[in-house]
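INFO batch 0412 | record 1 of 1 | parsing
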Amino acid sequence: MRKNLATPWSSISDLMSALMMVFLFISISYAFQVSKQAQELAKKSEKIDEITSDYAEKNLAIYNDLVKSFSSRLSEWKATIDKDTLTFRFNDPALLFEPGSAELTPRFVIILEDFWSEYVTILSRHSASIREVKIEGHTSSEWANATLDESYFNNMGLSQQRTRTTLEQCYASTPDKDKKWVRTYVTANGMSFSRLIKDATGLEDKSRSRRVEFTIVVDARSRLNKIMGELND
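INFO prediction complete | emitting C-alpha cells
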C-alpha cells in the first residue's frame, strides 16, 4: 500500500496560507484604524488651529478698540494696555487711592467715570467674545511692623477693599441697560502682593507693584469644549 507523502505538506501549506490571511487581515485592520485615528487627529488639529486663529483675531480686535479709545490719555492717566492679556493697567498708586486706604482719590474717581463709560461701550461691542472682565487690585509686600505672613493677609484685605470700591464706582457709572451684564461678567479680585512687579535687577518695584488692572478674558474655552464634544460624538 502506497503512502500519500504530499498530505502533511499540503496541510502545512494550507495552514501557512490561512495564517498569512489572518495576518493580512490584522495588518489591513490595523492600518485602517491608524488611518482613521490620523484623520480624526488631523481634524481636531484643524479645529484647534481654527479656534486659535479666531481667538487671536478677537484679541486683536479688542486691543485695537482699546488703543483707539484710550491711547491719547494713557500718559495722563499713567496707564498702559497689554496687547497679549488685554490688561488695562493703572500704574500710579498716588493717583489711585489715599495711602493705606481703600478710598479712591478724587482724581481717580474722575478718571474712572471717563474710562468706564468708553470701556463698557467696547465691552458691549465685543460681548459675544468675552468670558469675564477682571478688576484686580495689587499691592507691594510692605506693611509696617508686620511679618511677611501678616503683611500678605493685611494687603489681601486692603486689595480686596480697593477692588470693591473701584467696582462700586464703575457700577454706579454704568447705564441701567448694561448693569445686568456687569453683574454677570465683571469680578473684583484682591491679589495682595502675589504678582509683584520686579525691576531690572530682579528686586520688587514697590511703587509699580501697587496698581489696579482691568483684564478682558476672551472666551475660547466654550467653543473648544463644543467642538471637542462634536468630534467625540
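INFO post-check: Residues 6-70 form the longest helix (65 residues).
INFO record closed
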